[in-house]
Amino acid sequence: MSAGARTVVVSGGTGALGRAVVDAFLEAGDRVVAPWIVPAERDALASARADALREGRLALPEADVAEQAGADAVARAAGLAEVLVNGVGGFAGGSSVSETSLEVWDLMYRMNLRSAVALTRAILPGMLARGRGVVVNVASQAALTRPAGLAAYAAAKDGVLVLTDTLHQEVSERGLRVHAILPSSIDTPANRRAMPGADFSKWTPPSAIAGVVVWLASDAAACVRGARVPV
User: Fewer CB in a 10 Å sphere around the end CB: N or C, the chain?
Assistant: First the structure.
């Protein structure tokens, strides 16, 4: 690990997009802390990045970051984190408002918004104490387009945008930068299985989105504040 390496926390880092984000930060020379709750996903990342684990550039703490205790445990494992990527997320639904159960609403809130709030609460104090840091939240273009049948998911992702905008107002004068990226369809194996008839050439590969995240967290983007970036 280089002397100038940062510590980066990537929630959702064992998922399809998260794996690409973890890889991109590791390739940039940073240390990455990626919490997990799915053993198979953790094992896949650990196997693929065994070099980084061995060298201490990758840490994989088990933690449910939608719970404050889990988020706090990640903050302790990270130490002085300089970048936070709130990438935990998930999709369920596809039904009208009247047909979407309250359990699905709760799940979408917990996965997509509560996880980001809890982890931000855990990591933010250290950033504020040092007067520097970058937070990148993963929202969705569905938060803006609000398509029929996706109310629970879109509402949760819209909440991520509210979190981003409000946090930006609260901390931008204290040396921190807060952004959101808004993916549309991401080219992942799961999405291809779910939508086999789609035109995959119009989808964005995870590696391209990861490149945007790393750039937003870099010194090259120091003049960019409170951005909403469609990807």
Answer: N
